[in-house]
Amino acid sequence: MEKTKYSFIKKVAPYAGLIALVIIFSLTTDGRFVAARNLTNIIGQSMVTMIAACGCVFVMAHNNLDFSLGGGCALIAALSFRATKAANLPLMLVVCILFGIGCGLITALIHVKGRIPAFMAGMCIMFVGRGVVEGMATNMVMNLPADSSRYANNLFYLIFLIVVFAICVPLFNYTKVGKMQKLIGSNPRAAQLSGVAVGKYKVIAFAISGATLGVASFLTMIRIGSVTKTIGSGLETDVLIALTLGGIPLTGGTGTRIRAAFIGSVTYFVLGNGLTLWGLDANLIYIVKGVVFLATVFATMDRTDQEYVL
Q: Do the Cβ atoms of 108 and 206 come closer than 8 Å?
């Protein structure tokens, strides 16, 4: 009975947290938070993170973290611009997705074949991506055509978000690909002994994460109109915090829900926006976000088997 009650609390906590933040900021910002323009900004900021988070759910489900997202986003954007010269946006989108899948596969192969922790493999891609983009941005200007700015709107982003969700939700909830990720996350050793091709499904998860990262990279380029040294900066932490706020345990497993990508991303950007409207210093905002993240992890992480003696 107590376990069922705890499970119910974990399910409703992300929604309760979001509602609480909306109410608090609505009452304490003299109506600025609920202004149509501000709400539109929050939605626009969160949609790119939602898209990247959708694919990352597959990786988190099998108890791994993808730290390649920020540097990977920069690398995908720079390479796709170099390959297409941004002359054809549909072609650039396809190239972004292909490069994204490539980044995901490289991370997965380093992890699976090299037997290196996934977060370390992801960090390698992140640093390589940042280095490549720093060099390219120094030697060439990477601006998108002026007419691409007409696509920098929430409706355009929403179309991509709907398509990504329409693919990822059934893939994660109703196919073997998604079910195996949760099984591996629950008990990788048992999954291996049961004949599950653990390495294969991990590679698939990183490839899916790379594909959604490719879409997120394309939309980020559209939003800022160019490829800069800082493009995608902090995306990996935004996604990680968003998914955790959405209720996904860091250990993955059966508690992983893809809806966390939506709920968590909105919560994360509502929190940042509300704190900004309060007039908090940027450093304090980071501190508050860190405290909220720690509290969320503390509340959702299973620590029953972790007992240490001081």
A: yes
Neighbour tally for 297: CB within 10 Å: 14
CA dihedral of 245, 205, 69, 302, whole degrees rounded to 10: 30
**CATH assignment of 39-300?**
1.10.3470
Domain ranges of the chain: 39-300
Output the pTM of the full model: 0.91
pLDDT in tens, 78-123: 999 999 988 899 999 999 999 999 999 999 999 999 889 888 998 9
What parts of the chain have a pLDDT lower than 70? 1-9, 299-310
